[in-house]
Automatic annotation (TrEMBL):
InterPro entries to which the protein is assigned, alphabetical: FOCAD/RST1_DUF3730, Focadhesin/RST1
Gene for this chain: FOCAD
Pfam families: DUF3730
Swiss-Prot/TrEMBL GO biological process terms: regulation of post-transcriptional gene silencing
Annotated protein name in UniProt: Focadhesin
């Protein structure tokens, strides 16, 4: 009779217009059932009723959403008076309804209050606090909620906010018995890390989740995927605003400081680019964003870099991987892929193969994933020799396809220059800097790097050549190029004659390149500089700069920016008697332009005759 009553109630609930009384009757029946030692067959039949599709409580909530307070009250009673040894069955009865309530795709806002209130009921502690493990009902409920996490909907702001609260409450509940929930805590921490990016995009905040992990890092040692967490933090640092970066840096430092991570420090190099990106930010930005006191972002980034550089891979450790891990967001896909590739890149042959595969995809893509830049920066720090040359070439090609992360690669190249390197590799790295100037967003960072290099007198010559290479790609840096050329004229007692000579040659080469690349735009500006070099470089061992600027003059005459006859009339008093072979060769090339600039006039005939006389006199 009792079973028939329960069945009848479940059928009538969705149909009545006054469901309050029937919900109360159903609750009394459930309460009575929970108190009696009923036969197993009756209990199983009662269980079958609530397993029918759709679940009766789902039908009630869909048709009568206003009855949720009464529904909450009686569900609370149901779990409070759950019979001993029947905990698993009671949770199984409510599983379909709970999965619908928390994970249903529509996620109706009318049910939000019920979801949050019921969550507090499900997560409340059951039993004395001094117990070393949860009771059976609490254990089944927590496991059920952990199983629901991958099915949460995180498509809009309200869903993300609810999921954020759910994850925080669930994490805190698992912490009541950390030894029992080791695996679940590690998996949930990985879920939190994946969820951070979605939360950041929709709410602009992820620090609360990071702080939750950072505060309980000591409990997440055994079985925690440290390498994957390090990669995830690196990806987050590249995407978070300055106000959200301090908790991430603190968590990264705490992870790398754990004894369990000492044997997997190779992955720590993945954090070099994010840390350098923070260090390259301006002091003004730091002043505006730091309000909470304590260590600044810059100081935390320095500490992180020190840890990364101190540690080395001592021995290989079996990585932790969850084969049956179902992530809450698709972020885990790029995270897991990066982790797998990172493991393969420890072999030299795999590095070239991966770079080739990335290059093959560039013609058909306009946006390179962030994790590719992260791995590229890792290779820039890790590799040497021929492999490093291949990485530099790949970086230039990737920058042409997508320049969004190029400003973050510049500090990595400067960081690499600070390490012991062969001269050839140093040169390749230096000339990669201007090669990355493929877009205006990259210019500021490259200019800053070149200014740092130019502040050293012995590097001013090569810096001028690098600035010229950058100008060839970005004409907007022409004023800065002029400033560097003016600096090369300044004599200094602190530099040697060889260094001063290098600056003169570099300036002459830059004059030539400017005249060749953009004669109509900036050629006229170079006439005074050309005249200055020719006046100063008259000795036999100073032919190289003079020849270089004459090549620039050749380009100006060829482009008809200046008149070759007027030019020679101005230069002939100085150069007509010059016997230096390199100068004579360059003058011959200049005179070879005369036939192509033919004009039907007496002046032209006189010019041709004068050129021939000069040429034969020199030879």
């Amino acid at each position: 009779m009792e079973t028939l009553c329960l069945c009848t109630q479940s059928c009538l609930l969705p149909q009545t217009s006054k469901c309050l009384g029937l919900v109360w009757v159903g609750g009394m029946g459930t309460e009575k059932t929970s108190k009696l030692h009923i036969p197993l067959s009756v209990f199983l039949y009662f269980k079958t009723i609530f397993r029918n599709s759709p679940h009766p409580l789902i039908t009630i909530l869909e048709n009568r959403p206003d009855c949720w307070p009464i529904l909450l009250q009686h569900m609370t009673t149901f779990f409070q008076q759950c019979p001993e040894s029947k905990e698993s069955a009671c949770v199984s009865i409510m599983r379909p309804f709970l999965r619908y309530l928390f994970c249903e795709p529509c996620q109706l806002r009318e049910h939000a209050e019920l979801r949050m209130a019921l969550l507090r009921v499900l997560l409340q502690s059951r039993g004395p606090r001094n117990k070393e493990e949860p009771n059976a009902l609490e254990c089944h409920l927590l496991q059920l909620l952990c199983d629901l996490v991958p099915y949460f909907q995180v498509k809009d702001l309200s869903q993300v906010t609810e999921t954020l609260l759910f994850l925080q409450e669930l994490f805190q509940s698992l912490l009541r018995f950390p030894n029992v929930w080791k695996l679940q805590l590690c998996q949930l921490s990985l879920q939190l890390l994946c969820f951070c990016e979605v939360s950041l995009q929709l709410t602009g905040e992820c620090s609360s989740l990071i702080c939750l992990m950072e505060e309980n890092m000591e409990l997440l040692k055994e079985g925690f995927p440290f390498e994957m967490a390090i990669i995830g933090l690196g990806l987050l640092l590249l995407q978070t605003p300055a106000s959200q970066q301090k908790p991430i840096l603190k968590l990264a430092i705490k992870i790398l400081s754990c004894p369990e991570t000492k044997k997997t420090q190779t992955a720590a190099l993945i954090l070099v680019m994010p840390a350098l990106q923070i260090l390259s930010s301006t002091a003004v930005e730091e002043y505006m964003t730091e309000k909470d006191g304590g260590a600044t972002r810059q100081q935390l980034a320095i500490n992180l870099l020190e840890i990364v550089q101190q540690e080395e891979l001592k021995e290989k450790k079996q990585p932790v991987c969850y084969d049956h891990f179902f992530p809450i967001t698709s972020v885990y896909g790029s995270l897991h892929t990066t982790w797998k590739i990172l493991g393969l890149l420890r072999e030299n042959s795999a590095t070239s193969e991966w770079l080739s595969s990335v290059r093959s995809m560039l013609p058909i893509t306009t946006q390179v994933p962030v994790h590719v830049f992260l791995l590229l920066a890792y290779l820039l720090v890790q590799e040497n020799g021929d492999n490093l040359c291949g990485v530099l070439a790949a970086a230039t090609e990737i920058a042409k396809a997508d320049s969004s992360q190029v400003p973050n690669l510049i500090p990595v190249l400067m960081f690499k220059l600070g390490r012991p390197l062969e001269p050839t590799l140093c040169r390749n790295i230096l000339y990669t800097l201007p090669a990355l100037g493929v877009h205006k967003v990259c210019v500021a960072q490259i200019l800053r790097a070149l200014q740092v290099l130019g502040s050293t007198p012995t590097l001013q010559a090569v810096t001028l050549r690098l600035m010229t290479s950058l100008w060839e790609k970005q004409d907007r840096v022409y004023p800065e190029l002029q400033r560097f050329m003016a600096m090369s004229d300044m004599a200094s007692l602190s530099v040697s004659k060889d260094t001063q000579w290098e600056k003169v040659v570099a300036k002459a080469a830059s004059i030539r390149d400017i005249c060749k690349q953009r004669p109509y735009q900036h050629g006229a500006d170079m006439l005074a500089a050309i005249s200055q070099v020719l006046n100063e470089c008259t000795k036999p061992d100073q032919a190289t700069p003079a020849a270089l600027v004459l090549q620039g003059l050749h380009a100006l005459c060829q482009a008809e920016v200046v008149c070759i006859r007027s030019t020679w009339n101005a230069l002939s008093p100085k150069l007509s008697c010059d016997t230096r072979p390199l100068i004579l060769k360059t003058l011959s090339e200049l005179f070879s332009l005369v036939p192509s600039l033919m004009v039907n006039s007496n002046e032209y005939e006189v010019c041709v005759l004068a050129n021939f006389c000069t040429y034969f006199k020199a030879n």
